[in-house]
Structure formats: structure tokens, C-alpha cells
Amino acid sequence: MGDNIDPENLEEFSIPEGVLTQLFEFSGDADHSKGFILAFVTHSGKPLVYTKTQNQIVEMGLRKALEKYLIGIEEAEGMQHMDNEDPEMGLD
Length: 92
Prior knowledge:
- The chain has 92 residues and is of the alpha+beta class.
- The chain has helices at 17-26, 56-84, and strands spanning 35-41, 47-53.
- It has a domain at 24-84.
- The radius of gyration is 21 Å and the shape is flat.
- The mean pLDDT is 84.
């Protein structure tokens, strides 16, 4: 790789298919429960999500796990905002 890399003109990043295939092979049981959902952001700030599952049951399970995760994060953020509020604020 040369030293003449222009960070303003990089090609859009994509994860090589071989890496995604390996990730799929490393996940789950050999016969029934392989799958993943991968979320990341590109160098330009664009969020991307890749998913590959062996069957619909695995996909539904992963989606439910993500749903619980996101709800948990939202609840935790809500608690942080409540802790940071001034109890005197807004009272006349």
C-alpha cells in the first residue's frame, strides 16, 4: 500500500464476503442454528446492517434479542436523563 492515500476520497467500505462467510460458519450449531446480524458504520458515517441466518427461526430469535437489547438501552438512557434532571426545575 502506498503513502499517497487521500482520506477524503476513499472507496466505500464493504466487508469481504469471505469474512461474512467465516462469521456465519463460526456461529451456532453446525446443523440448525447458524446466523448473525452485524451492524456497523462506514468511514463516511453511513450505518449498515448485514444479516445471514440458516433459517427463519434463527432470524426471529436474533431479531427478538436485538429488540430486547435496544429496549434495554432506551430504558437505561431514560433513567440517565431522569437522574440528571433538576427536581426544582420547572416549579414556580
